[in-house]
Amino acid sequence: MELELIEIIYEAMLIMSRVIGLFLIAPFYGSQAIPQRVKAAFAFMVTLVLRNVVTVDYLELPANIFFLAIDLLGELTIGLIIGFIVFLLFVAIQLAGQFLDMRMGLAMANIMDPEHASPTALTGQFKNILAILLFLVLNGHHFLLRAIAQSFTVVPLTELLLTDNLFVELLKIVGELYPIAFKIALPLIAVLFLTDLVFGLAVRAVPQMNIFVVGLPTKMLVGFLVLSMLIPIYVSTYRSLFREMFGNINQIITILGDLGG
Length: 261
Known about the structure:
Layout lengths: L1 H24 L10 H16 L13 H40 L6 E3 L4 E3 L1 H16 L2 H15 L9 H12 L1 H29 L5 H19 L1 H30 L1
Helix pairs in contact: 1-2, 1-3, 3-4, 3-5, 3-7, 3-9, 4-9, 5-9, 6-9, 7-8
C-alpha cells in the first residue's frame, strides 16, 4: 500500500512538473500579478485532471533521487519549451512598442508591467495588453491547456530526448523575433518618418521655428492618433500571429514526439 502511494505521488510529480514549466513562462498563466499560491493551486488542479487521462502504467520508480531529479527536469523542460514559444511572441510585441517609443520621444516614459513586474515601454505595454486581451478572446489560454494535455500523448512521461533538430526549430522561431517586431511597428514608424520629414522641410522654410518645442508634442500627438487608427489592423495582425504561434507549438510537440519515439 505504501509503495503504491509512492508511485502515485511520483506520477503526479512528473505531470505537475510539465504543467508548472508552462505556467512559469507562458503569458497570462505566468503573470506576476497572479499570486503564486493561486498559480500553484491551479497547477495542482490541472494535474489532478490530467492524472486520470495520462498513461502511466509503464513508469517505474527511479533508483535514487538523482534519477528522480532528471525525470522532473525533463518534464519541466517540455513545459518551458511550450511556454517559451508563446513568450517570444509577446516579447516581439513589446519590442515593437519600444521601437515606436523611441520614434515618438517616449523612450524614457517607462511604466511598470504587472505581467512581468518590470519597467516596460509605454506603447509596448499598450500593445501587450491588447495582445493579451485578444489572446484570451481567441481562447489561447485554453489552447495552451490542450497543448500540454496533447504533449503527454505525443511525448510520454520520462521520454524526452533533446537533439539538434529540436534546437534548429527553436532557433528558427527565435529568429522571427525582430522581423515580427519590425512588422508590427513599421506602419507607425513610416508615419513618424514622414512627420520628421515635414518638420525638416518646415525648419528649412522657417528657420525661426523652435523644432524642439513644436516637434516633440506634435510627434506624440500624431503617433497616438495613428496608433488609435491602426488598432483594427493590429487586431488582424495579432490574429495571424497567434495562429502561426499555435502552429509552431503543434510542430514542436510533434518534433518532441518523433524524438521520443
